[in-house]
Structure prediction request, 406 residues.
Amino acid sequence: MVSVRKWQWPILMALLAWPAASLRFQLWGANVPVETLVFGLGIVSVAFLLTWTAEAAERDVPRTLALAGLALIAVLPEYAVDMLFAWKAGNDPSYASYATANMTGGNRLLVGLGWTMVVAIFAFRTHQNILKLAAIHRTEVGILGIATVYSFIIPFRGGITLFDGAFLVGLFCVYVYLASRGEVEEESDIVGPAEMIANLPTGQRRTVLAAMFVYAGVAILLSAEPFAEGLIDSGVKLGIDEFQLVQWLAPLASEFPEFLVAGLLAWRMRADAALGALVSSKVNQWTLLIGCLPIAYAISSGTINPLPTDTRQTEEVLLTAAQSLLAVVLLINLRMTLIEAGVLAVLFAAQFLTPHSIVSRDMFSIMYVSLAAVFAVRQVLEMRPFVGDGTRRLRSRDGTLARPGS
Prediction:
């Protein structure tokens, strides 16, 4: 009984995937909105399993690499949905807009909701206004900065090309290589079911992790396509913009477990690990996810043409790149203040209170870039005293600035 109680949450999440599986095998039926809800529940439940799997793996791989793995594995459901849209676009171009919508929505949710939530919880729990990241996160911030600068080229090409895909996937590989050079840590910032799994003997732990990963993968394969199609059909039947459902509801469902884990870490005074994991997720989605979309489209369509983006999608990509630019500038010194997080949160929330038009998206893009420029100047001015002091110390050390009585 004690053993079952310890495993109650993994067991519950595994069982919650069964209604979706039985529905996929046509053992029962319902209307489209209910079916979409069931498949969405299946995706959310196995997303929890994947999150715990990646966290527990910190016992076996370097922490930075574990964070990269956590970020990648935790968003596999979103990858499945987005790649499905890109694949279908090869035969039906109307799906191309959904692929871009899902990708941009997921990226903006991570920064506008995920990052700011962690900083807010940290400030509430510690009564401090500055959340500092450890030096190991320079890799993520640096790679994210390169990807962000490059992403501003994409909107002006009329689509996401195979060259974009090769560059961004290659950048992700560089990130994984750099992350793998860290050291394995016996003590890590994992909590809950992941901690229980991580504390198993090595052989049992790896067996359990492999079983959970395979189980979740099968569940995702069964649920991803009907969930994606259900979102579109439900939007049409309920009179809701299906584009909005694909852009916000799908990534929110798949990333909810990761947000919950990050929130719990921040609540337990481990906000550095929480924000680090979400920054790594942003790197994953802003490199590998974007990079895989044109590849899936090319294979499906049998051409080397770019994944097409219409006017709306071009604006969405530009807006997402602008938000990413501000986020990178704010984290360039490996810290984020409550005010800075508030700026990201307000700008993100304000987008839902304004008309969804090209003018509105352009306005927010300009605001993000303008604020990024302002904060960049501030960052430089704040760093100058430290740089100057460091230079004086170096010169004094070799005697060039040494003075009597100094």
Notes: Residues 400-406 have pLDDT under 50 and may be disordered. The two ends are 71 Å apart (CA to CA). Residues 2-349+356-393 form a domain with the A middle domain of Talin 1 fold (CATH 1.20.1420.30).
